[in-house]
Specification:
Strand content: 35-45%
CATH class of the largest domain: Mainly Beta
Strand order of the largest sheet: 1-2-3-4-5-6-7-8-9-10-11-12-13-14-15-16
CATH architecture of the largest domain: Beta Barrel
Structural class: alpha+beta
CATH topology of the largest domain: Porin
CATH superfamily of the largest domain: Porin
Number of domains: 2
Number of strands: 16
Largest sheet: 16 strands, antiparallel, barrel
Length: 467
């Protein structure tokens, strides 16, 4: 039995037997009743402790079943599995490399685990030795796959609205919207690497590939590689993490459907303050169509500042501001995008699995001639807002609403309004079913709607998303 299980009853026994120094107490009827009450409470505590231990064992078994644990991981105790659960589900994953080194060491001679066989028939293989396939899997990265299948039908307009207004959503019919593969692992105690690629029916794209520092002092953090620029809240999200099935209108019109992703370096600093305050700066190649001039010096600079406060034990407020600037891909001079965002999240600690809410507002403005769709070349500035409200009313169901508006500033030829409602079924963190209706109302032309659904699933060990 692990020492922690022996320690808890021992402490309870000592604490119940302890009597403060002084005059000896003579047992009376009242003291006897108090002792009986204390003994009953200690029995109840022991029952609760046993139930918790049983539940931890069950969670460990479920985790091993889902992750298809190999013989190497079968060699470790239930406590090791509990630790891995914490590393998998929270920000503690940053110490995964250290835990890996401590746990997966070659058994010493005479170790009862060496060469033994588990109840499932797996053989315990020390790190560095070959498995039945002839290749060691000890240092394989964490891998995950996200699949998105969707379908939709239009009403109102029959002249293929996605060709007239490509920013508004997807085509009719059934589609494989995207399949994303992610690899994540610590290269060393100093760097962690992530590689993310996506596949669609028409394209294969390397979305992100970067290394992140894990050992810089004084609150500094660095990322180098191809990354989604932290421009506002939405741009940093991958498709499977969108709060709605498609991107906001202003993001698609300014930054294209793929968002603003580029090769470069990013440095951020977390200020030592009683609240969360982070500043981020970056330099990128400028290969994105928004800034690409076709030359070799399309350098793009980026900055972001965001702060977060606890309004209460259940509510947080986040404010952010960001900008990106570089040479224009259409005209001379430097072009830029600026943005501001605010997010309020409410999640009661005692009912976090059953109810929570989120409200978000984001504004973007770009100063460049548009390059995409029917609005190509119109206007020197285009701005827009997007706001949404999400509410979880029980453990598996969400209801959501969103409002988009472009042309703030801009002309009526680039002004669109969109109203979106969504019902989402989320049985667990690996599965999501959505039904969504959007009504788009252009200032020029007739309004049209689209009814869409989406199946979103994840297999493998997927890292936690940004808060």
């Amino acid at each position: 039995m692990p020492q922690s299980r022996l320690f808890i009853p021992f402490v309870l026994t000592i604490s119940l037997a302890y009597v403060s120094p002084g005059k000896a107490q003579v047992p009376t009827e009242s003291t006897q009743a108090g002792e009986d009450s204390i003994e009953a409470k200690s029995d109840s505590l022991l029952v609760i402790i046993n139930e918790l231990e049983t539940r931890l064992r069950e969670l460990g078994m479920q985790y091993r079943a889902r992750e298809s644990i190999t013989g190497l991981r079968e060699a470790h105790t239930e406590k090791a599995y509990s630790d891995k659960l914490l590393l998998h589900t929270g920000d503690e994953r940053i110490s995964l490399y250290d835990n890996f080194r401590k746990r997966y060491t070659v058994p010493k001679s005479g170790d009862p685990l060496a060469g033994s066989t588990t109840a499932r028939g797996y053989q315990h293989i020390p790190p560095g030795q070959s498995t039945a396939t002839g290749i060691s899997r000890a240092f394989n990265p964490a891998m995950s796959v996200n699949g998105l299948f969707s379908g939709g039908i239009f009403n109102g307009r029959r002249d293929q609205p996605w060709e007239v207004y490509p920013e508004c959503g997807m085509e009719e019919g059934l589609h494989m919207q995207e399949t994303e593969i992610q690899f994540s692992s610590f290269v060393s105690p100093f760097f962690k690497a992530d590689i993310i690629a996506s596949f669609s029916a028409d394209d294969i794209m390397l979305e992100e590939v970067f290394i992140t520092s894990a050992a810089l002092p004084f609150g500094w953090k660095a990322r180098i590689g191809k990354i989604y620029a932290p421009l506002g809240k939405h741009n940093a999200l991958h498709l499977h993490h969108f709060p709605f099935i498609e991107a906001p209108l202003i993001h698609t019109m300014l930054l294209t459907e793929g968002g603003l992703a580029d090769f470069g370096a990013e440095l951020s600093y977390l200020f030592p303050l009683p609240f969360y305050l982070e500043a981020t700066g970056g330099v990128f190649n400028g290969d994105h169509p928004f800034f690409d001039t076709g030359g070799g010096r399309d350098i793009m600079g980026l900055g972001r500042m965001n702060a977060l406060w606890d309004l209460s034990e259940n509510t947080t407020l986040e404010l952010g501001g960001s900008f990106v600037t570089g040479k224009s891909g259409l005209s001379d001079g430097n072009e830029s995008v600026i943005g501001a965002d605010t997010t309020i999240k409410w999640r009661p600690l005692r009912r976090a699995l059953y109810t929570q809410a989120e409200w978000q507002l984001e504004y973007l403005k770009g100063s460049q001639y548009l390059k995409w769709g029917p609005f190509r070349g119109s206007g020197e500035e285009l701005g827009g807002i997007v706001t949404h409200l999400r509410y979880r009313f029980n453990r598996t169901w969400w209801v959501q609403a969103r409002y988009d508006k472009t042309g703030l500033p801009g002309g009526e030829d680039v002004s669109l309004s969109r109203y979106t409602a969504q019902l989402a079924f989320v049985p667990d963190e690996f599965e999501l079913w959505r039904l969504q209706y959007s009504l788009t109302d252009p200032d020029v032309g007739e309004p049209f709607g689209m009814l869409t659904f989406q199946i979103n699933f994840t297999i493998g060990s997927h890292p936690a998303h940004v808060y």
